[in-house]
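Readers of this paper often ask what the protein records in our data store actually look like. Such a record has a labelled line for the sequence and another for the backbone structure tokens. Nothing more is needed to write down the fold, since each code stands for a local backbone conformation. The remainder of this section carries one protein's record, kept here as part of the documentation.
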Amino acid sequence: MNEAPEIRETSALLKIDVGGKRTTRNENIWSEKVRDEAHLSAYPIALWFAASWWRLRWEFLPASSPTHSWRMAHELAAAGYGYVWPRMLFAYDGEFIQIWATQSNPESNAAIRYLVDAHHGIPVMEYERVIDGFLSAVIARLEDVGLKQTVLRELWSEILDEREDRDMSAYRRLEAMLGFEPDECPESLHSRFSSLIPRAGADAIAEIAPICAASDPEAKLRSIIQFADSTGIEGKVDISVDEVCLNAVPWERGRNLAHQAREQAGITGGILKDGDLCDLLGISPGEVFSAAATSRPPLGLSIRHNGSKRSKFLFSKPHPHGLRFELARHLGNHLIAKAEDSWLPVTNTKTARQKFQRAFAAEFLCPIQKLKEYLEDDFSMDAIEDAAEHFCVSEEAVKAQLVNNKITPGVTYDFFEFPYSTQAKCV
């Protein structure tokens, strides 16, 4: 174990809570005792939070398997220093810092095993308040014992200065969204993204960045720009709804807005015909459903013309049911978009905006009340297949509606399984 003075002077029995669950609850293999706290040191955690601050605050969960670099910046195990840390993961989703915790591998030979699974989303301002307070407390403790010049103090002071500098803060945010450590993002890539903000909008860049944060981000960005410049289908969204309650979580906002949109559009039945759905976007169903997909673009996209209600639509789904779902996601996207947003992406990422879109589309096309009436408490595979055909959605959409509305068991919008396997070491 490292006996540096910073480690020794901040050693303590630590407790970590996530959404009311004690993630430090552990079993000591040798004593066979279960405790809520773990004997750890606050310094390594504080140093890890400081070193990873920009990426933890602004980098999204990757669309594909996470890289070693991503895991080092987002998994608490990377705090290192020889301690056995709880298996915890942090990722930004556009509104919240999502935190997952999972039990220790039962086959681990570690002296302690953590026993709790948890997930909770913390509003970003609350996350900043808690982490700022924790780091300040650790630095104050070190200063009290005469350790005034530490790596942590120097690093945290630099980060606070960057956060106060508007230009530097914007630079670091984009850098982190693209998956880079501070000062490691290629200047050409950063410039290309920055120059696209006036054209696409800042919110669009935040949705596109996770798609590009891969092995060749410049190539991915070029393909997206090329897709945006291609010929699409011209349409017009001429429906409006009341403001959505911003205090609700994304999936609740999506569901509630779908109810409003159906009411505003005068949709009373359960089934929404292709023609009626396309009418809401001002496009022709023949033009949409007859277009043969020659490639699989990385996203769907609608581009508004000079802040008007008219837009160009570019679709990514070739299958009719998938395309209907994408059409509904585009509609929901338009209903919540800010006036200054030009590009409105529809992606497969796990950002808050995409969660909203999926919840909106599911409820708009397959209202849970109508679905329950149709199924009549029969949740067999045959019944689900029939319901999918009836509502013209995929079977997965039907299953998701049942799970998310807590009618059948499963992982819901408000609880996510650990996003990927953590069996491989990240340090």
